[in-house]
Amino acid sequence: EMGGYPHYMLKEIHEQGGVCRATIKGRVHDGKVDLSGELAMDEETIKGFKAIHIVACGTSYYASLIAERVFERWTDLDIKVDIASEYRYRDSKISPDTLVVFVSQSGETADTLAAQRKARESGAYSLAVTNVQGSTLARSCDDFLLLKAGPEIGVAATKTFMGQITSLYLLALYIAKIKGTLSDQKQKELTDEMIQLAYKIETILEREPSIEDLAWKFADYKNFLFLGRGMSFPVALEGALKLKEISYIHAEAYAAGEMKHGPIALIDPNVPVVVVAPKDSLYEKTLSNIQEAKARHAPIIAVGFDGDERLASDADHVLYVPSTLEEFSPFVTVVPLQLFAYHVAKKRGCEIDKPRNLAKSVTVE
Ligand code: M6R
């Protein structure tokens, strides 16, 4: 049932192109996203939304942080993203014209369910973005949007993260269409690129042997620092979480611009720095962070776009991914980080699909 793969996690990483494709299928027509046949919310309801809150835990929270950056770029909504175990106890203003989106693979995470009860009491419209149609979350929200990831067995979320970002991007494009905040031409440009992502993801999977080689070189380090800016900051968070969860190596992620505000003190030849550095509008800034880390003799692993030779002259190792529009870079940059974590854990002989102390769904607080 693992389809020839030694672990579910590896199988699920390899399914991600398919997940992206399946999640988009039937939802894009003539350069526009259409979710009207499946969402309960109608156009009037959508036009009335002034704010959006996205609430989740763990990897689902990192997917939400990525979505935050496109919601603020593509729509006119005021956006807030929070961890469910914080949101439920905070005093954020949730009004009836707020759309509250709960992102949960399982739909059974205790804190996410509690946060949903709070939103419901405030009269806001709640939407579940989940992989499980019959889940408690899907049943308690006013509305739901399904990721088409299929069951995920590995405790470390991989393909559901891909399904989540795909679904959240579709939601952002759909809301933008109805609210008229993106031109037809821009919608077409974005949806055309979105359709290409599955192929790009599959190209990265073919490069697995070189990622495995690199993972073997780095499997004995005790601490890692992950850095990224903009769209790549949540990707750094997710890359560090994958490494922590399955290989038990301490990995911290920071917004690259925060390096000087503390973490730079940690850098020395024993702390590899993984930098997510796609060629986007913040690229030059990220490159200067690479140089700062290099000056302190940290081994540098960069994730960058194909053809970016400058990166190769600054970093010790580069994991190349096909280039895409700035907004979509997480779809490609996250994949080598998942594979890196997987192969480090495998080299260390860890129990990859069932890491210690972790459960697939966290149904207690
Ligand atoms: O089922 P959920 O999406 O609500 O789960 C949230 C987190 O527990 C989950 O993403 C966790 O962080 C994973 N182990 C990450 O790999």
From TrEMBL:
Keywords: Aminotransferase, Cytoplasm, Glutamine amidotransferase, Repeat, Transferase. Residues 41-181, 214-355 form the SIS domain. Its EC number is 2.6.1.16. One of its GO terms (biological process) is fructose 6-phosphate metabolic process. It catalyses: D-fructose 6-phosphate + L-glutamine = D-glucosamine 6-phosphate + L-glutamate. It is found in: Cytoplasm. The active site is at K360 (for fru-6p isomerization activity). GO terms for cellular component: cytosol. One of its GO terms (molecular function) is glutamine-fructose-6-phosphate transaminase (isomerizing) activity. Catalyzes the first step in hexosamine metabolism, converting fructose-6P into glucosamine-6P using glutamine as a nitrogen source. Homodimer. This is Glutamine--fructose-6-phosphate aminotransferase [isomerizing]. The lineage of its organism: Bacteria, Thermotogati, Synergistota, Synergistia, Synergistales.
